[in-house]
Structures are given as structure tokens and as C-alpha cells.
């Protein structure tokens, strides 16, 4: 049901008045997503669940009570959906450590997963004006570095910040594994922590202004012992499951900064589309996801309707492919989400061995970063984005964000580290600049 009114005003009210709420923000939608916002909130007796991967405990929160109900957030969410109605909708995230059977360091501060079933859900249509507004501000400096539009190598030459010893050491360890044939590509990431007095709601409104995206959104779970705020400006689809059981994912591999002028921007876009390294990275992840979908889809239904399209956002161009299939009748929606998890674009290939390498070389936990965020319905439909370009906090004034990129044998350590820094710039600007 679509509600008239201003979604920003509705969000501000919901965040101020309800300890558990969510905004799936359609303001930055593309032609492959609906330009509609969903704002929802929970009454005190409504149910939410949280997951602590260190203790392997899923806790059910309702009516001021917290009860441990399982050890796998996917299994608990599936049970809740089975016990509910087809019209029920759950909103939340699976963090990187949400599968107990895979190697991943738990988050020491935030829940490794949060899902909420609100009794109040409102929809808001966005007029198709965001794209025109975005086109006017593409070339305006809103916190990106002066190096926008230059090649990765040029940005590295201009940078005065050398890769820190920890990143350099992890990069070299990854190269050893790549040359030994243990992986074809490793998505190497690290976490940045920053203090900020910005409230989560104010920071999100700033983030959506700086970096509108198809999977933008805000989650607030202000529950004692399971506090979590997730502010997302992600451009990447993790999984869409439609009414006819079509499963679609849109992996991103290959990113370059926007140009400062139209000429530089066109050149940056052309470089991304033709760069052999980016194309090889993207193709490896497409092959990985074809294999992942083949495990849960009907034989012969998996296809790649688009390969290496360039999508442009406020600060970056990205190389995006689409992989699609038809779910088998014996595979549930949550079962499919679990089988694909985590996103291959955030691990590398092959997935399990590469996750083992990631666990060995990364010195900070990923938390919600590299997970999936969105909604799942009791009728089997779902739509989730990959948790990238996102901010996290427990509400204590400390914020974390993850950043990284795909490493191959042809990668350069300085270039890769520079990319992680400019990917994080707009997120940091949302915390450091007032509205």
C-alpha cells in the first residue's frame, strides 16, 4: 500500500519514536529496482531476532524479553516465516559471519545478524527526479578527492598516503596464495573506525545526499545487548527472488572514480569497460555465481542476460553483470539465500578456499560488511543488497565501515590501497560534514 507524504519526514519521525525501525530507501533506485521507499517500525510486542556468532546464539526479542532460540540465523528466520502468514515481511541483514559452517570472525561489538517483523509498514513512491538531480551534481565536489576522474595509477601517484604495514603484509600474503594456485582472486578488505557525534538518522540523511544508491537504507535495532544501526548506500544486488521464483543476482567487480569533467568522465568509463584486469575479475565472479545458482536452480535455467555493463553512480563507475535462474521447487527462498551466502563478489574464487585465506590474512572482522541487507516475505519473495558502502554503529559514538577490493596476481599494492580509500571517502564525509 502506497502512502502519500514525504518519506524523509516519515523516516525522521519513525527513527525518533521507535527503537526498532527500518527505511528501505527508493530515492536512489535504478530501472532494475522499484523507485519506492518502505518505512516500517515495530511495536514493543513485535518480534525481532539477533545473532551472536561468537556464542552461536540466535536471540528472539519481543515484549521486553530476550530468548535464545537457535544457533543459525538462516534456520531461525526460515522457521519464523513458516510459522507466520504469507503476508508477513521481515527486514534486516545477515552479516559476513552469519553462516556457522563457514570461516569468518564474529563482530565483537554489533550483532552478526538482525531481522525484524514490523506490524507497521508504509510505502512511498518517489517521483523520477532523483536521476536528474544526480546528473547535476556528478561533477560537483561533495567530498571526493581531487583525483576523481584519473586512472587508478594516477590516483596512486598523487596520493601522499602509503599503504600501512598491515595492509601491505596482507596483500603480500594474498599474492603468495594466488601464485600457489590456492585462489584466482581474493577480495581483501579492512575495517575503518571513526568517532562522530552525528546521530544515526542525521548521518543517514547526509549519506543518501552524498551517495544515492539502489540499495540505500537505514536499520535501527535499539535493543539492550543487541544494539545495531546500519546505514547503507549500496549499489549491488545480492539476490532478488520474484513471485515466479526467478532468482537474480548482479555482482559488481571493477570500480573506477568518476571524472571531474565530462571528457574525463567518458574516458574513465571507457577504461573501466576495456581494462583486462577488471574484465578478468568480473568474469571470475560471474563463473562463481553461475555455479552457486546452479546448486539451487532448475537444470538449464541459469543464464547471464548481461555481462560487464558499466553503471555510473555519484562517485564511481562500476562493472556489473547479471546472473539469473529459476529456483528448484525443493529449495526455499531462505535456503537459496543461505546457499549463495556470502556474495561471491565479496570473497573471490573458489569461495570456500578463498574465505579461508581471507580469515588468515585480514586482521579486522567484517561484521555486517560483505553480508546482505533487505527484506524477505512469507510468500517467498525477497530482495537484498550486498552490504558495501555502509556505516555501522552501536550508538556509542564510534562508527565502523568496511572497504576493500579484488586482488589478482596483476594487482599493485599502492593502487589497491588507494582504491579502498576513495571508496570510503563519501561514507566518512557523511559523518564529518554537517547538513
- Please outline the major beta sheet: 12 strands, antiparallel
CATH topology: Anthranilate synthase
Rg computed from alpha carbons, rounded to a whole number of angstroms: 20 Å
Oligomer: single chain
Give the number of helices. Answer: 11
Total domains, how many?
1
Structural class: alpha+beta
The end-to-end span amounts to: 31 Å
Low-confidence stretches: 129-153, 155-160
**Superfamily (CATH H level) name:** Anthranilate synthase
> Mean pLDDT, nearest integer?
91
User: Helix fraction?
Assistant: 25-40%
Total strands = 21
State the gist of this model.
It comes from Nocardioides panacisoli. Pfam families: Chorismate_bind. The protein is α+β, with helices and mostly antiparallel strands and 435 residues long.
Tell me what you see in this structure.
It contains eleven helices and 21 strands. A hairpin with a 4-residue loop joins β3 and β4. It has a single domain (7-432), classed as 4-Layer Sandwich (Anthranilate synthase). It starts with 6 loop residues before the first helix and ends with a helix. The strands form two sheets. Strands 3, 4, 5, 6, 7, 12, 13, 14, 15, 16, 18 and 19 form a twelve-stranded antiparallel sheet that branches. Strands 8-2-1-10-11-20-21-9-17 form a nine-stranded antiparallel sheet. The model is unreliable at 129-153 and 155-160 (pLDDT under 50). α2 runs antiparallel to α9 and α4 packs across α11 (413-432). It is of the alpha+beta class and 435 residues long.
Amino acid at each position: 500500500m502506497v502512502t502519500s507524504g514525504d518519506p524523509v519526514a516519515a523516516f525522521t519521525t519513525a527513527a525518533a519514536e521507535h527503537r526498532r525501525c527500518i527505511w528501505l530507501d527508493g530515492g536512489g533506485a535504478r530501472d532494475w529496482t522499484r523507485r519506492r521507499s518502505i518505512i516500517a517500525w515495530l511495536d514493543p510486542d513485535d518480534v525481532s531476532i539477533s545473532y551472536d556468532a561468537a556464542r552461536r546464539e540466535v536471540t528472539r526479542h519481543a515484549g521486553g524479553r530476550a530468548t535464545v532460540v537457535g544457533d543459525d540465523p538462516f534456520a531461525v528466520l526460515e522457521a519464523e516465516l513458516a510459522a507466520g502468514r504469507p503476508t508477513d515481511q521481515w527486514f534486516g541483514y545477515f552479516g559476513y559471519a552469519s553462516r556457522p559452517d563457514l570461516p569468518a570472525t564474529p563482530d565483537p561489538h554489533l550483532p552478526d545478524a538482525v531481522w525484524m517483523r514490523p506490524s507497521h509498514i508504509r510505502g512511498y513512491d518517489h517521483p523520477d527526479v532523483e536521476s536528474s538531480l544526480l546528473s547535476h551534481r556528478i561533477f560537483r565536489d561533495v567530498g571526493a578527492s581531487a583525483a576523481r576522474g584519473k586512472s587508478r595509477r594516477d590516483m596512486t601517484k598523487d596520493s601522499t598516503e602509503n599503504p600501512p604495514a598491515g595492509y601491505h603484509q596482507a596483500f603480500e600474503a594474498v599474492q603468495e596464495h594466488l601464485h600457489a594456485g590456492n585462489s584466482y582472486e581474493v577480495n581483501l578488505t579492512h575495517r575503518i573506525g571513526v568517532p562522530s557525534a552525528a546521530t544515526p538518522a542525521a548521518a543517514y540523511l547526509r549519506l543518501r545526499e552524498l551517495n544515492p544508491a539502489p540499495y540505500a537504507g537505514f536499520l535501527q535495532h535499539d535493543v539492550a545487548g543487541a544494539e545495531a544501526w546500519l546505514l547503507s548506500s549500496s549499489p549491488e544486488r545480492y539476490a532478488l527472488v520474484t513471485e515466479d521464483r526467478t532468482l537474480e543476482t548482479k555482482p559488481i567487480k571493477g570500480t573506477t572514480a568518476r571524472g571531474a569533467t565530462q571528457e574525463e568522465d567518458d574516458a574513465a568509463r571507457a577504461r573501466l569497460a576495456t581494462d583486462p584486469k577488471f574484465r578478468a575479475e568480473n568474469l571470475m565472479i560471474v563463473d562463481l555465481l553461475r555455479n552457486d545458482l546452479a546448486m539451487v536452480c532448475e537444470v538449464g535455467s541459469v543464464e547471464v542476460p548481461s555481462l560487464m555493463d558499466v553503471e555510473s553512480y555519484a562517485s564511481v563507475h562500476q562493472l556489473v553483470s547479471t546472473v539469473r535462474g529459476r529456483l528448484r521447487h525443493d529449495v526455499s527462498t531462505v535456503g537459496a539465500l543461505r546457499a549463495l551466502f556470502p556474495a561471491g563478489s565479496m570473497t573471490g574464487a573458489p569461495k570456500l578456499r578463498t574465505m579461508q585465506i581471507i580469515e588468515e590474512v585480514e586482521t579486522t572482522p567484517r561484521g555486517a560488511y560483505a553480508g546482505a541487507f533487505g527484506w524477505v516475505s512469507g510468500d517467498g519473495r525477497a530482495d537484498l543488497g550486498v552490504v558495501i558502502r555502509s556505516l555501522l554503529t552501536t550508538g556509542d559514538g564510534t562508527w565502523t565501515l568496511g572497504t576493500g577490493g579484488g586482488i589478482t596476481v596483476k594487482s599493485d599494492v599502492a593502487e589497491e590501497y588507494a582504491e579502498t580509500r576513495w571508496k570510503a571517502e563519501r561514507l566518512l564525509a557523511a559523518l564529518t560534514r554537517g547538513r
